[in-house]
């Protein structure tokens, strides 16, 4: 039982540190900054692009940022020796 509590405390510590991490993805002058909770912190658009191009690039930036966060979290969990 104490082992489970210890694991939960470790997971909470990893989660809290990950919330502070920011992932930035930039493509064609369009930039998205997302934190470890998948919350958008900043969006910068490129006004030289058409609306359709901006929408397409924004989706790519969001998806890449999300993927990067998931990969970083998995890597951090694995390197900490955390197992379920």
User: How many helical elements?
Assistant: 2
Classified in CATH, the superfamily is Nucleoid-associated protein YbaB-like domain
Helix content: 55-70%
Taking the sheet with the most strands, its summary is: 3 strands, antiparallel
The CATH class turns out to be Alpha Beta
Report the count of strand segments: 3
Strand-and-helix sequence, N→C? HEEEH
Q: Ranges with pLDDT <50 over ≥5 residues?
A: none
Shape field: elongated
Q: What percent of residues are in strands? A: 15-25%
Structural class assignment? alpha+beta
Q: Distance N terminus to C terminus?
A: 14 Å
> Overall mean pLDDT score?
88
The CATH level-2 architecture is identified as 2-Layer Sandwich
Tell me the CATH topology. Answer: Ybab, Chain: A
Radius of gyration: 17 Å
Query: Could you give the order of strands across the largest sheet?
Result: 1-2-3
Tally of separate domains: 1
List strands and helices in order, with pairings.
Blueprint: H1 2-19, E1 22-27, E2 30-35, E3 40-44, H2 51-79
Antiparallel strand pairs: 1-2, 2-3
